[in-house]
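Objective 1b of the project was to move from sequence-level analysis to a structural picture of ligand recognition. The entry below was assembled by the postdoctoral researcher (A.K.) and checked by the PI before modelling. It contains the amino acid sequence of the target and the SMILES of the bound compound, adenosine-5'-triphosphate.
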Amino acid sequence: MSDIIDEVLSSVKNSAIFKNREYLLPDYIPEELPHRENEIKKLASILVQLYRGERPSNIFIYGLTGTGKTAVTKYVLSNLQRKLNNFEYVYINARQTDTPYRILADIIEILGDKVPFTGLSTAELYRRMVKVLERSERVMIIVLDEIDALVKKHGDDILYKLTRVNYDVHKSKISIVGITNDVKFIDGLDPRVRSSLGEEELVFPPYNAEQLEDILKKRAVLAFREGVVSESIIKLCAAIAARDHGDARRALDLLRVAGEITERERKNQVGEEEVEKARVEIERDRVYEVIATLPFHSKLVLLSIIKGLTKNTRLTTGEIYDLYRNIATSMGSEFVTQRRASDIINELDMMGIISARVVNRGRYGKTKEVVLAVDSGIVLKALLESDERFADFWSG
Ligand SMILES: Nc1ncnc2c1ncn2[C@@H]1O[C@H](COP(=O)(O)OP(=O)(O)OP(=O)(O)O)[C@@H](O)[C@H]1O
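Corresponding predicted holo structure:
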């Protein structure tokens, strides 16, 4: 057995493919960010007020996923801090650190105080934060990435509190940098929070294929051994990611996974075939993740569609609802109204999991016909593995 492990290990240790795979991982912050010069300049010119010890405006940054929002923000802040060294900043991903309690605790901890994991009220934490801020006599920049996730879960009260801190603290100041890829997010905020958070706004446009190519080239030189990745392979990865709204993360993932597949198959050059396999693998992972995290009734509607499609090539919304109600009842669960089920079908359509087409059935009026837009095997796998009740139902 240990021979097998040794063999697998040696293929990675003496990789013919990667010089340093880490340069392709999402958390690596590159030293250069090509094609984000304008955004770096804009953000730096707002934050540069720190030089005078003044509070920079709050900033709201938005743009689609993988457009470099996080990378640019971290890049500008860490470079400014090296040069100025007169401010603090804390980076908080609000999807991971997703309670007002943990956010306040993170801010307090970066300023050097300890906070118990739970047990205090947020009002008490707020008081402590004001106290440590006052003592620090510095400007503090709070970066809230994926800020929409926090507000969806807990409302915008914590944002309101944070934008008001400067009224309670006198010797220090805070500024907030909010980042989101949900363009509509800011419209849903309390008007006071909206105007305060959006003192300055920055929009990150998607990358085009040539820009992605540059980004990939720079990373490929660091990550791969010479001769493993050709220019045409980089072009191909860039073109695929550009079709998908110019997402640099996706382009980098594609190149990394293609490299991993090449390594696994013990080849010594990444070819088009490996890129295609990587594309399929990444797409499967994405679909799996999206389905596994759907709410229960959306999953149930999807399960009904899968079940219905074992007998028919397409289904009407009425047929789906009947199936859904039967399955819910047989599982001892409540069911949602036909109108809500119809909304769920629209949501699944928007996510690209199913495809729904309106058909006119003469005097019977209009209905929608639904087919799956992704591989049914992966849908079923995600449903059955993410909820035991579905596994029991399907096997029973
Ligand atoms: N101009 C660039 N040059 C080099 N790498 C980049 C550039 N822009 C983005 N990247 C890389 O692409 C990946 C995604 O970027 P980043 O996390 O900054 O995107 P984002 O806009 O914050 O996306 P999300 O909204 O999904 O968090 C990271 O690995 C980042 O290093």
